[in-house]
Amino acid sequence: MKKEQANWLAVLKIAMPLCLSYIPIGLACGVLLHAGGLNTWLIGLVSLIVYSGGAQFLIATMLTIHAPISQIVIMLFFLELRYALLGSSLSHYLKKSSHKFILGFAFSLNDENYAVNYLKFATDKFWTPGNALLVEHYALYTWAISNVIGSLIGSSLTINLVIVDFALTALFLFMVTMQVKRRLTLLTAILSGILSAFFCVTMKSTLGIVVATMLGSTAGFLADRFIRSMSPDSPLLYKVRGPSGTREMINDQALTEERLLDEQNEKTKDTKQP
Amino acid sequence: MKDLTLVLLAGVAAFIPRYFPMLFFSKRKIPDWFNEWMGFVPVSLFTALIVKQIFVTSTYAFSLGNVAAMISAVIVILIAYFTRSMTLSVVLGLAVMWGLTMLL
Fold first, then answer.
1. Most buried residue, A39, A116, B34, B51, by CB count within 10 Å?
2. What does pLDDT average to over chain A?
3. A248 contacts chain B (CB < 8 A)
4. Is residue B89 part of a domain?
5. Are residues A125 and A202 in the same domain?
6. Would you tell me which residues 34-93 of chain A have a C-beta closer than 8 angstroms to some C-beta of chain B?
7. Could B38 and A107 be called an inter-chain contact, meaning their C-beta atoms sit closer than 8 Å?
8. pTM over 0.90
9. Residue A64 and residue A115 in one domain
10. Torsion angle defined by CA atoms of residues B26, B31, B37 and B43, in that order, rounded to the nearest 10 degrees
11. In the structure, how many helices (H) and strands (E) does chain A have?
12. Residues B40-67: pLDDT tens digits?
């Protein structure tokens, strides 16, 4: 970082790719939340306090299938539990920070700004917690403003609900496809799908989704442990082949920290990439 | 009012897992089992939602009647697999879905 350059500007340059990528997703999210029935003020508020694409798309979906508030909140909590990982892995860079700072930092943490900050903390010894918080805030405001604009676009269009519902389905299909890296993950997904249909129909409630998620993820986790201890060469643990030139999703970085660091060490000090 | 309650509770649900582990694990190590378990959560949740959307009707009956969504879903998976682009997957998926609902 050059010394002549103002700090806020230098940090903004680092946060810029992230902010730009939030605009289209934020717009889409605003349109869909509006279709789910939230008004523009609430969409602004939810973007500020929940601040997570996955979680907000989940809220939009659960609203369109008329799930009760309690279920939406339970599912959200379960989905957001992964932040326990991300937050924990950043926490040793924040040892010298006050509790108040950690509170504010945790409040604005999400997948993407975690990735940027993790990389900066790991590779740039001049990167401070204050800079990291600034990255979080730049991204937060871009995200919230995009959501609000999306909501205004949504309110000025009449949208075919069948098609909008499918936008969310397509989004989740994309996320699942990106996350299936091993055969076992694919099996977990299939199991979870079958359980979801079964429990939604038998319980006559969207609670079936909650039950299917709990059972499916636990089954996948237990099977993974069992197979690895009993037969580490099992074909179930094989990777699913991606097409050539596959790019990792940002979400996976928490699980592949070491590999990420190695790659970064190989590169020269070109730390601008998020 | 109901929506405001939802948004505020959602904020609480989002804040708890962000804050307390960060504070707690600043001096401890994250247990491996938790790490591994969480790795399976998003896949399970998203598939459960997808299946509900495509195969379960609003009256909670199992249905194979949503042919347009089924075909579009397969196409979205293929586009996602080969292009790895979220925008392309969603936009082309919507276009196919729109076309199929017109045709079928």
1. B51
2. 83
3. no
4. yes
5. no
6. 37-39, 42, 45-46, 49-52, 54-55, 58-59, 61, 65-66, 69, 72-85, 87-92
7. no
8. no
9. yes
10. 30
11. 12, 0
12. 888 898 899 899 989 998 889 999 989 9
Indicate whether B92 belongs to any domain.
yes
In a domain, A261, yes or no: no
Global ipTM: 0.88
Q: Across A105-195, where does the E strand assignment appear?
A: none
CB atoms near residue B77 (< 10 Å): 18
Whether residue A28 is contained in a domain is answered as: yes
Distance CA A44, CA A38 (A): 10
pLDDT of residue A264: 52
Which residues are A239's β-sheet partners? Answer: A182
DSSP A124: -
pLDDT at residue number A3: 54
The whole-angstrom separation of Cα A101 and Cα A133 is 9
Strand-pairing partners, residue A166, are none
pLDDT at A267 over 60: no
Q: Are residues A30 and A76 in the same domain?
A: yes
Domains: count for chain A: 2
DSSP string, B39-104: HHHHHHHHHHHHHHHHHB-TTS-B----HHHHHHHHHHHHHHHHH--HHHHHHHHHHHHHHHHHH-
Cβ-nearest to A166 among B5, B30, B72: B72
Contacts of A247 in chain B (CB under 8 A): 84
**Look-up: residue for tokens 């990167």?**
A127
Using 50, 70 and 90 to split pLDDT, how confident is the model at A246? very low
- Please indicate if any CB of chain B lies within 8 Å of the CB of A200: yes
- A212 found inside a domain: yes
The boundaries of the domain holding residue A187 are: 180-242
Q: Per-residue pLDDT for A260 more than 70?
A: no
Q: Are residues A189 and A162 in the same domain?
A: no
CA distance A44 to A53: 13
Q: How many domains does chain B have?
A: 1
Domain residues for the domain of B88 are: 66-104
